[in-house]
Amino acid sequence: MRMSGAAPATPAAGRPTDAERVRSVLVAAHSMTVVTDGLRSEVRHLDGADPMGRLHLHPGEPGGDGEHRPSIRLEFTDIAPTPVRDRVRARVTILGRLLSPYTDEGADSTCMEFGSAVLETAQGRSYVGIEELDAACPDPLAPYEAGMLTHLLDDHAELVTLLLRLVQPLPTGAILRVLPLAMDRYGITLRLEQRRGHRDVRLPFPSPLDDVEQSGVQIQALFSAARRSSHRNSLPA
Fold first, then answer.
1. CATH number for the domain running over 18-135
2. Dihedral pair phi/psi, residue 189, rounded to 5°
3. For the whole model, what pTM was predicted?
4. Are 20 and 138 in contact (CB under 8 A)?
5. What long-range pairs does 96-105 form, CB within 8 A, spacing at least 24?
6. DSSP string computed for 143-162
7. Among 99, 155, 185, 214, which has the highest number of CB atoms less than 10 A from its own CB?
8. How many whole angstroms separate alpha carbon 49 and alpha carbon 36?
9. Cα 130-60-103 angle, rounded to 5 deg
10. In the chain, count of helices (H) and strands (E)?
11. Fold of 145-231
12. CA-to-CA distance for 160 and 223, rounded, in angstroms?
């Protein structure tokens, strides 16, 4: 995908836009499913590189002969790196038609006429146009998020519990587990698991990050805020 480098659209309430979510899923993907000519191919050697580096999207041309070109479907699944319930966080599907033959071998790039991009999350389904994708940038934490969350949980589990003090109001009923679910430039999302169901809560950073180097300061700011609020409840740290 050839991106223009334009500034991303302003997100609502400190959350990534749908186009930013799509770009972030793509840049962090280690595999994808390609469906063309009725055949499914699993591509597992992305190695964290943006798969659009060899699949270039082009705007569709109204009134063209697109219906005579082979259709192609790219499927990506965003899975939480931590052992939460319901680990699928999002699914991204890109639909289009081939402008040049596709092969999952070799270094030649493939051009495709863009049809639509579909983002599916727990909040529902949305459609993203090629102009929005061109204008959006992936989250600066996307390539590092999995390692950051697993490190937080494996080596600093007590700090995850500490963050629970920032959740207002707490859900009724006992919380069995609190786990980090996601992290982006706007904050951390925790999953509060109860006996029946779960609840996801976002804890915003004091200010959005511009690059991964700023993450340490912002995360520490959340820990400091949680320590200051320890008098509000008796939850363990």
1. 2.30.110
2. -110, 125
3. 0.85
4. yes
5. 96/57, 96/60, 96/71, 96/72, 97/66, 97/67, 97/69, 97/70, 97/71, 97/72, 98/36, 98/69, 98/70, 98/71, 98/72, 99/58, 99/69, 102/34, 102/36, 102/70, 102/72, 104/34, 104/41, 104/43
6. TTHHHHHHHHHHH-HHHHHH
7. 185
8. 22
9. 85
10. 5, 10
11. Split barrel-like (3.20.180)
12. 9
Tell which residue, 30, 35, 62, has the closest CA to residue 47: 30
Q: What are the structural domain ranges in the chain?
A: 18-135, 145-231
pLDDT in tens, 66-115: 567 899 999 999 999 999 999 999 999 999 999 988 776 655 678 899 99
Percentage of residues of the chain with pLDDT beyond 90: 62
Statement: residue 188 has pLDDT above 50: yes
